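fyi for ur records
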Amino acid sequence: MKSRLKSIVITGCFSAVFSIVGCDRDNFTDSNDFKYQQIEDLSEEIDEDTLGPYFATSSKLTQLSIDYSDPKPIKPEIYGVNNDWRRITGSMYTSFQSALEEINYKLIRFPGGFESEYYDWSENRTPDWPNKPDIPGADISAIKQSNPNAISIVIPIRLAMLETVYSASWEDAIEKLKLEAEEAVELTGADNILSVEIGNEWWLQFAGQNVEREDKLLKYTEIAKRLALHLRNKFPEAPFKILVNGDYTEPQEFALIRDVFGPNLDDIDGMALHIYTGYDSETHNIRDLQKKIDDCQANLGKTYLSLSEWAPAKAYNNGKVYAQGANLLVEQIYEHALAEADEAAFWPPTNPAIPGLGLFNFQLTLTYPTAQLFKDMATDFNGEVLGVVDGDVRGAAASNKDGNIVIYITGMEEPYTTVTLDIKKNISEVVSVQMWQPGNLEDTADAIPMNSIDNFPFYIDGKTIMFNVNENSNYCIYKLVVDVID
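which gave:
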């Protein structure tokens, strides 16, 4: 139905639209209806008032509008991906690299997640890790040979986290960590590194029996302070950023990090946050993300921002997966751009780590919905991010490098709804429209890719576009590329 109506772009017809606002789904014109076929064949000859009634609208309406008042540059490195050293073996990395290139990734985080705390950079092994794989993953030389646009690395802190702070054994562990950090930079090449993240999720690490979170934080900060100073002294001309790791849901902890660093605060450039978020959480709600990031930065007194792990978390999103999760992914990337993130890295790259959210299946032969939308946004959602005043559905907007306005609308769980999108500028042309529809309309959590449909019907009237969302299924995603007249 939608593909047939793509060629019908109606201008100046809102009087016709509003006359049918009360229509419901049952009154939508059937695709086999003779009258419908006439419209397709004779659209060049029928006047606009005749066409109006065949664009059925929902009884549920919502409105969104674009806000141009505070554009912010979108950093390409927000389209990064974590390596998974545990699961992606060295022999698999070439295929993994090809899959990443296919989705237009811009950065790789190495070695990856918690394996970073056990990783021996010179041996490419994790000898003390309970989850160590039988076959090691790719080493840093293989990563460099793949010629990524950017590399961020994680250096370990675990050895010192296990010891009593300021003790002799703690000081010995610090010296070992300095050598490991130095080795990591040298093997990667200082000029090849975008950022160095000190530690991975200190708040989740074991730091001795009955050690309270506040004591973990102090221990972590003292470790980070020493490692940052060592890297600055060892590589004084290196361009890479040095980042402390922290929990974005506890912004006040960054004030303690700032105070402990004291005059050494200039040894670091910013922070690395792990942004797992959703709608069904008081602590990790996506609606609160901007404020929490702002508070973290204000408390630390540093602005460089790495979102070094992120995903539309099932735990905070009522278990949403595949096409469902891809809806939130669009919103998260938009939020990252609004936060002016300097870099980001999606986790997990493959499905076994978090089933239902991976970019690819384990064999790297299937591209899941998260990767489909990641690729599209990495390709077209660039330039400057724009504000969106939301209605019952959410939007993401950018003024891209081609000079067009790119808008994504996520249907999420909303019922069949007619959207009025106010572009706020005169529309020269709708360059393209695209819809991603769940591959299984009866089961939007099915482990299959979404269907990409290169058109859907819409009205244009000066500065406004009207179209329907979630007409045949929930969790549809809509993209419009619009050429405007300033």
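Residues 75-380 form a domain with the TIM Barrel fold (CATH 3.20.20.80). thats all i got for now
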